[in-house]
């Protein structure tokens, strides 16, 4: 079982964050545009707990690559069993996901710059309708305590000394909240 454990933070000054990351030896990649369609399992809706529920995502990047991802939160929204694969036809994959009973929820469009510090992946995201964020994540293949892993990730971010605000919401929830009030 592979799990992705992450911690996410709102960023007030992206350029200041990038300077700090560079000073810590992080080589950040070029911006990549990502267009994600999120899908919910039958019977789930916003406001309900996500733990134990299967969610799907269909992502297209600006190089024309399509990724199909399934996530199942374990101890919280930022601790998920994850499976991901490349697909060749976004439209056919969308139709297959809907045929399996999943329903499209929100579209998340973002620009992502990423890199890594040892075993920790770092993504600087500018998300349409939601703002700028930094995500730090690790992949674990054991039954490691998700909350303890998130505390480790939080120490990494706090050591940078950058003005950030932690959030436990996923991008789909953040975009949905932002667009529902617009």
From TrEMBL:
The record's listing under SUPFAM superfamilies reads: CYTH-like phosphatases (SSF55154)
Which residue numbers delimit the CYTH domain?
2-177
| Listed InterPro entries | Adenylyl_cyclase_CyaB (IPR008173), CYTH-like_dom_sf (IPR033469), CYTH_domain (IPR023577)
- Gene3D superfamilies given in the database record: Hypothetical Protein Pfu-838710-001 (2.40.320.10)
- Name of the protein in question: Adenylate cyclase class 2
This chain's source organism reads Actinorugispora endophytica
Write the lineage as a comma-separated list. Bacteria, Bacillati, Actinomycetota, Actinomycetes, Streptosporangiales
